């Protein structure tokens, strides 16, 4: 290292960079340039506490108002008052301490106003004075934090999983043990009836395990943060309808009255997750109510609605009200046929409600019943998803949607392509190859509002077929004849019979206009005779 | 290098005679104003735009197809840009697709979606610059639900009566209303009943409706004159219900005939001039050019479409004559890709339908859809009040004069034995 040893103390003013030093021929400029190129900021202070060197890295990274020739005290005071650093103590205290520590080995991390974290290290120089370096450690710190958080999350998940598996273990063992016994019994059982009973019991045990695994999976997903709510606005009435359909039979079987008081409100939440919460409430209400009713309704509360599920069941003791939301909690005195309760439903509800930030509440009186409720914010009706199909087409919303039409065509390819066109318009197409098939369709319950018949059928004309169908389906059923025969005599013959005719290949717009007129504007049709 | 400076012929199929001649005149005005403005700024890449008008008379399929053929064969138009022609049922798409030119219209027909999607390659140039008729249905149901839920009106029941005209347009709207009703807490108590239109005789059907005691009565027929007679006959012995009349009641003709009976009627349009600064400036230019008696809210349709087309064609490097499929595909691509805010809202084509989508019923973002505007006639001598949707509305709903004033006040909520509220 001849360069360093031959160099004089670094007291060279910046404007004297190219001066050759005593006793040497060393050009210092490349050294200065090298120090300027690094990202670390460097300040060098002389023994008498004067700033004698600043590299470019300092200017790039720190941007503090410093100048060569500045006194150390002055520098510290400027930093303390600059608000550029987040200081660990009051500015004056910090300044005093820092001034006192001149020339002492010291290092600390400071957050800058820009958000960056700077590692500031000072070291004494051999002949007095001091060097201070400034290293940007923002990325390093961020990585450290992320790693730490990931580790903590992993540990927490691991702990939750262990706790969970311990609890689940018991619940899975029970049906599994039953299953083993049942299988053993089943193998030995000769009586067919008994066998079938055992098989049924095996089915029940398997379905309990299936439910349990399903619930575990849901909780696992919630724990792992894999369930991302998708908040939309929608009509609560649609959701209530689905719940009514889902639970009607269960309630009927138990002889309970299941009633929904349906609001017209738009709400703003995740539709599927809210449905899971409510279906858990309703399922529990039905399960734990022996007589009376289950009522689902809403109250206005602040800027939202509280959806309540009210039952006349056995109720929950006050001290148990919090515990019912814990994993695997089950009502203690239960020796009735409540085996289906896993003790996970309300835990899932609680986790979902936390995820959605919808407060849940339970009020209950032993022997009287319980009210489980969840609060949800109201939504903007203009944004309500009204259960519309994403693709609005004529098949679902056109003027002909659902109109039954009888199509008689003996050419299979033509019949299929015409049927396809009609179906695209939402028409309920009944197609037949001949009169016999057509009459059978009518006899089987097709009630055509319009007949479309080919003229040149194998044994009969389209007119004959139309007349026969009209006898069966109604004399005034409108009809159209299509024909490839452009012979004026034939066309006139059909027209004289009072049936409009289209020439093949049939133009879809013409067919559409004609069908519209026959079905909806018969007066226009009579006037124009199209 | 001086380029081609020959005029670019652009066709426009407008009903200059027949029952829709009033609208046709405005569509023509809109085209003229747009072309004048475009030409004043240098035309289409230096070529002046020359509009050529074809009369579609009664707007039947035959007349509209003949108009399209005449424009393509005789005038070799590069595009056809107009307002609406009802009754053609997309027949005109065939000669246009054969010629491979661009066609921009405001026919308001759901079948446009199906025609385009049935063969996107063939109908690449066909664009519908307003939302399909279907959207009037769910849009209307949301509107009345919004009035109800925001406390602006307390209906006396959940009953909705729907009368339909006999055109496909009216039938599609009626069915869409009926289908959307239940989700928002409405029960269809009458109809949709299809009445043979045109007609000025409504008393029988009004009496049938009366028997069902509705809270809302909607009539989806759209001829201004017929609707005016409907409204006059309704107020002879009014019911305690809101009255909604389809698009036609925005016309001056409606208030001219119905006069005071118009007051309180609700009407909507999925394409109409907005009352913001941009809309007002257009209105002033339009009236300065065509006189105070002209109707910029109708003329704006063809005006916006023409400007949009011209920008699209410029982006594509020019327009294409009949047969120049390659160039016109480039224009179509530009039109599909460009979101254009004009004086009546945003033209943004759905990538598959090649039709504009409505705000707020389909898109919740006003910058991506054309506003479905609800008006109320509050004083028949004054312009219509624009009462929804935000952020375009300029007035508030008022209870129609024929309605029971008590129903404006919120009633005490119905309470069941457990204290839960029926909303």
What does this protein structure show overall?
The complex is a heterodimer of chains A (530) and B (423). Chain A has 530 residues and is α/β, with parallel strands linked by helices. Helix content of chain A is 45%, strand content 19%. Chain A contains 17 helices and 18 strands. Chain A has helices at residues 2-6, 29-37, 56-61, 72-82, 91-100, 138-188, 192-223, 236-254, 271-287, 345-356, 394-397, 412-424, 435-443, 462-473, 488-496, 508-520, 522-528, and strands spanning 41-45, 51-54, 85-86, 106-112, 117-124, 130-136, 232-235, 257-260, 266-269, 293-301, 304-311, 360-365, 369-377, 404-408, 428-432, 450-454, 479-483, 501-503. In chain A, the strands form four sheets. Chain A has a six-stranded antiparallel β-sheet with strand order 2-1-6-5-4-3, with helices on both faces. In chain A, strands 8-10-11-13-12 form a five-stranded mixed β-sheet. A five-stranded parallel β-sheet of chain A has the order 15-14-16-17-18, with helices on both faces. By secondary structure, chain B is of the alpha/beta class. Chain B has two domains: 8-131 and 274-371, Rossmann fold, CATH 3.40.50.2300; 134-269 and 373-407, Rossmann fold (3-Layer(aba) Sandwich). Helices cover 36% and strands 17% of the residues of chain B. Chain B contains twelve helices and 18 strands. Chain B has helices spanning 21-40, 61-74, 93-99, 111-118, 136-149, 168-181, 203-210, 224-236, 252-258, 277-290, 296-315, 325-337, and strands spanning 8-14, 49-55, 79-81, 102-105, 126-128, 159-164, 187-194, 216-219, 242-245, 266-269, 340-342, 345-347, 358-359, 370-371, 373-376, 385-388, 414-415, 421-422. Chain B has a seven-stranded mixed β-sheet with strand order 7-6-8-9-10-15-16, sandwiched between helices. A five-stranded parallel β-sheet of chain B has the order 2-1-3-4-5. In chain B, helix 2 (61-74) runs parallel beside helix 3, helix 8 (224-236) runs parallel beside helix 9 and helix 10 (277-290) crosses helix 11. Mean pLDDT of chain B is 92; it is low at 407-423. Classes of the chains: A alpha/beta (530), B alpha/beta (423). At the A-B interface, strand 10, helix 11 and helix 16 of A face helix 4, helix 5, helix 6 and strand 18 of B.
